[in-house]
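Researcher: I need the complex structure. Ligand is adenosine monophosphate. Inputs:
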Amino acid sequence: MDIFLYNTLTRKKEVFKPIEEKKAKIYTCGPTVYNFAHIGNLRAYLFMDTLRRVLKYNGYTLTHAMNITDVGHLVSDADEGEDKMLKAARRENKDPFQIAEFYTEKFIEDLDRLNIDKPEIICRATHHIKEMEQYIQEIIKNGYAYETDDTIYFDTSKLDKYGVLTNINVEEQKAGARVDFDKKKKNKTDFALWIKAPENHLMKWNTFWGLCYPGWHIECSAMSRKYLGEIFDIHTGGIDHIPIHHENEIAQSKGATGKIPANYWMHCEFLVVNGEKMSKSLNNLYTLNDLQERGYSPSDYRMFNFSSHYRNKINFTFEAIESAKSALKRLKEGYKIHKQGEAHIEEKTITEYENRFLEAINDDLNMPVAMSIVWEIVKNQKKSKQFANLLKKFDLVLGLKIDEENKKDELPQEILELAKQRKTARENKDWTKSDELRDLILAKGYIVKDGKEGMTIEKK
Ligand code: AMP
Ligand code: ZN
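Model: Output:
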C-alpha cells in the first residue's frame, strides 16, 4: 500500500517515493540542550517516532540522523540576541560544555521514558566543527557568501529563489524592507554562517578564519550530508523551523551542492495550553516529571498525543490528559480480555481491520483515525486471542506497550499523595518532615531522588 506524506515543499500530500526502494533516509532537527525538554518539545519527537514506526511497519529500513545543538546559537533565529548555551551556563554557574552534557543526557532519558524509537545516528554539533568549516568553504568558493569584519554571511540574493518552503517573495520584501536589519548584511534574509568569537566567548574553535563559532543552520547541512548524502528522503522538524532554519538549510545546500537536500519536508504543529504557546513566562510549561508528580505517566502523555493529527495544534489540559490516562487503562484492559477470549474470528474480518489501520497510518500518519479502529477492536463483543494479537501488532506503531502492566512510571495514588506532602514540606523548608516522608516512601518500596529537576520517584 502506498504511503502518503504531506510535503511542506510542495504544499501537498504526496505518495512517498524513496530514493532507494524500501529504504528511508531521514534527518530530524534535534533540541538545543540548554534546559529540560518540556512536553511541547517532546511532541515534536513523538511525531518523529510515529514516522519511524509507520515506515518500519511498512517494511522500510531506516537510516535516520538527529542532531543535538550543543553549541550556542543566538536566542532569535535571525542571528540576534543572546546565546542560549552561554545564558544557561551563567544561570547555572557551569561551563557550557557541562550544560550541554547534562541536558543531552536528560533529553535522551525523556526519549526513553516515552518509548521513542531513537534515530540510528544522534550527532552533536560540537563534534562536527571540521565538517561545518569545510561546508562553509564550499559555499564561499561557489560565491554564495561574503565577509564582514566579524561574520561570514550567506548571500541569499545569489540564489535563484530564497524561501522555497514559505514561498517568500524576496523582491517584495526588498522593496518593502525598512532598514531595520543589521547594516552589515547586504540583504534582509542573509544569515550568519560563521562568526568571529569575541575574546570572552566561551565556545569557539580555531578555524580557517581564526577563532570562530558557527551560525545555527550550518550544523544541520553539514551533518545531514555527512550521514545521509547530498540528497536524502525526509527532513523533519517543528513548524517553527520552516520560515528561517529550514529555508536557510536549503539555501546552504544550494550554495554548496546546488541541490535541495531532502525530497520531503515534514513539520509538526505546536502543543498549546489554552490556545497559547507553552513557555516559561506564561507559567504553563510542564516537563514529564511535572506530569508524573501529578500522576500521569509518559505513556499517558503519548496516548494524549494520538488525539490530534501532527499537523494540527493540540491543546494541553489536565482534563485531556486525565481522559488519555483512563483511555490507556481501558485499552490495556480490553487487550487483556481479548487475550483470554476463545471466540473464532473469520480471517476476512482481521484482514479488513488490518487494511483499515494501515490505510489510516499511511494517510500522512493519521493517528486519530488509527485509534478509532483500535477502539472498534477493543469494543468488539466477540472476545478473541486473534484480536489481542492484532492489537499487539498495531502496538508496533502505537508504542504504548499495551501488554505491560505497572510500569515504574505509574506510581500508586498513595505514593503520589506522600510525594505531594513531601514537596510542600520542602517548599516550607521543613527538612525533618521531608526526611520522614522520604523514609516512609522508601518503606513502601519506592526510592526518592532529589535532583535539580525536582523530586523523582522510582520503584525499588
Ligand atoms: P528547540 O530546542 O527550541 O530547538 O526545540 C526543540 C523542538 O521542539 C523543535 O522541533 C521545536 O519545533 C519543538 N517545539 C518547541 N515548542 C513546541 C511546542 N509548544 N509544541 C510542539 N513542538 C514544540
Ligand atoms: Zn536543523
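Model: Summary of the prediction. Residues 413-459 form one domain.
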